[in-house]
Amino acid sequence: MSLHQRAIVQILLAISLLLNHYEVEAEQRLSKAKDLELEKQLKLLNKPAIKTIKGKYGELYDCVDFYKQPAFHHPLLKNHNFHPQMKPMLSMLQGDDISSNNNKPFNIELEGGGCPVGTVPIRRITKDDLIRRRLTKQMRGGDDSPDGNGIVSDGTKPLGGGYKFASVQIPYSPRNKIAGAGAIISLHNPQNLSGHQHSGGRIKVQNGIDSIQVGWTVNPPVYGDTHTRLYTYFTAGKLACYNTRCPGFIQINTAIPLDGQLPGSSYGGPVFDVPMYIARDMSNGNWWFYFGITAVGFWPAKIFTNLKGFATSAEYGGVVYSPPGIPEPPMGSGYFPVGDLKKDAHCKKCTFLTDKNQTKSLDNILVKLYANSQNLYRVTDYPNSGVVTGNLVSYGGPGEH
């Protein structure tokens, strides 16, 4: 190699090293800027706590002043008359309509009786939560099942996107006036979920672009773990949100947190189950969430467009999500239904609430079975199945694992 060529090589090497140095500096500055942005978001999201309670899995719940909870950041809730002592004006919660007869009792309440009066438990958001949220911002919360009229709840994208369902539906009809839906839901912990998958069981009401769902979920993309948790999810137009992670749901109960840990049933027993109910307050249109016989909180009517009125469809069953190219995860117990309550994921005593504030069994209305991947997941409806189980929906499947 000539001296001239050697000099050129040395110059190019020096330029390369210099560029690498500047790239590293730029990445460090960008990383620092992102870190500062995350810290800024955390300060906005996490409100000053009067008390902090540690959950079973190490997560922290801050007891936040009722009036400073995330819901009141919603622009439509700036001027409100809500207060911590609010109770729904509902009459459907009577006797056996939602009694559980649990196979095995459990307690979801926070230690020490929960938060002080005038405060509500809000799960503290961490930096890792925000990072996962950015990575999965294109994912929705399993809200994309059709409402019976082929409409998905975000009003825009077609069915698909990795979601699979196995559920019994009260299909869409413009004549439907559904004021609530409920069932005794068995709880499960499907295994072998990857970081971008989730699996759960739910009850859902919907009217076009607006929907509300409640149930249990195993959701690593949201929680960063594979524990079974209580969850709620709503869509209001383009707004879609889990639990209290964006403005919408107003927490009332001081001891039962959304995101709370739940036990998972074992195949063959023991079985854990709990009544869950979504119900519209006829006096003001607010939609309440009941866990057992306890009112946890509500979604105000004013944040919705279509659900200012009644729902036009309802759904009971399971949902899973997996990104394209990743094997589908298990649903429910991880097995197809076999007609055995100790083995099947199920919803017992499936009911809906009429516009007359009357609780009716699914036996009293036309329903349809919906499973969009029947080789992986199945659903069965057992109408008139007895006093203990009422209308019974069983669902589940192994997925591709």
UniProtKB/TrEMBL annotation:
Signal peptide start-end: 1-26
TM stretches of this protein: none
InterPro entries reported for this sequence: Glutamic_endopeptidase, Neprosin, Neprosin_propep
Xref: Pfam families: Neprosin, Neprosin_AP
Domain Neprosin PEP catalytic: 158-401
Alphabetical keyword list: Signal
PANTHER family reported for this sequence: NEPROSIN DOMAIN-CONTAINING PROTEIN, PROTEIN, PUTATIVE (DUF239)-RELATED-RELATED
UniProt protein name: Uncharacterized protein LOC104218382 isoform X3
